[in-house]
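lol so apparently i was supposed to do this last week
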Amino acid sequence: MEPVAINQKVLILNQNYQPIMVIGGKRAIILMYLEKVDVLEHYSDYVHSQSLSLQIPSVIKLKKYTRYLRNNITLSRKSIFLRDNHTCQYCGKKHLPLTVDHVVPKDKGGKDIWENLTTACLICNNWKGNKTPREGGMMLLSIPKKPSFVFYFQQFVKSKQHSWRPYLFMDPVKYD
Ligand SMILES: [Zn+2]
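anyway here it is w/ zinc ion bound
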């Protein structure tokens, strides 16, 4: 259990709450001991040594603002489906076999870029064939774009990273 627990992914926020990096639990604990960070959220797991037991941090925040270069999000099938919420961008259906569709087909000069790739179910993709949406009489539900920087971090969020969600704008604010 312990080697797994210490390898949990930890989200680091800058001093102004901007997400900057995902690191391993071990590195996060070192940063805690160096008093470089405040711990905002914990996992339910602990690491134990002879003298102490420590709850693994889940979200930490730098005490001092630090300049970081922004990562680039890798363009992949997986990241396109994630951007489009696993939803066909032509018919709006979920839970269908999904494909990546070139909005402007490749042989019409369409490129492999975020702005030209969208999620389409098999049926819509076959229907569209080698046409542009206009030629196929189809409408896109969203204009494909390069995802925001925060999206990079959202990819790491599984059920265990529930506590990250408010920091990555994944949970709507509740007014009640
Ligand atoms: Zn569809």
